[in-house]
Amino acid sequence: MKRLTHGILFAAFVFAFLLACGSAPPTEPQSSPSSNPAWLDALIAQIQREPVTNPPTAIYRYSYREEPVYYRTSRCCDIRSVVYDRNGSVVCEPDGGIARIQDERCPDFFTARSGETLIFQDPRS
């Protein structure tokens, strides 16, 4: 009888252990992949390897002409801002430079864009 009781207790312990292991929550939060296009993640990684700009680089997502676009702010003095399409191709350079002159490919960008979302802001100073 004692042997049977030990066997039942052992089986119950193993069963309880297996149940607990199968339903235990993960100890670390699961990381999800970036929702950015791969080219944009590569651009952000490149920015982080470069010296800090003044002002620091920022990238925003907008809707423009009913398409998602990504706007990289002007980084300094005579460097224009850049608008990229969803595939990473340059749409236009709407402002920047000493004279703040755009390239005329999207003269309505600042008035027609909508749905601003900050994607990246260089935290370095």
Ranges with pLDDT <50 over ≥5 residues? 2-32
Main sheet record: 5 strands, antiparallel
- The computed structural class is alpha+beta
The fraction of residues in strands falls at: 15-25%
Helix content, binned percent: 25-40%
Number of helices: 3
Distance between the termini: 75 Å
Q: Any overview of this molecule?
A:
This protein has 125 residues and is of the alpha+beta class. The chain has a domain at 56-121. Helix content is 30%, strand content 22%. It has 3 helices and 5 strands; from the N terminus they run ααββββαβ. Strands 4-3-2-1-5 form a 5-stranded antiparallel beta sheet. The longest helix is centred in the first third of the chain and has 22 residues, at 2-23. The chain is globular and about 30 Å long.
How are the SSEs ordered, and which strands pair?
Elements: H1 2-23, H2 38-49, E1 58-64, E2 67-72, E3 82-84, E4 90-92, H3 109-112, E5 114-121
Antiparallel strand pairs: 1-2, 1-5, 2-3, 3-4
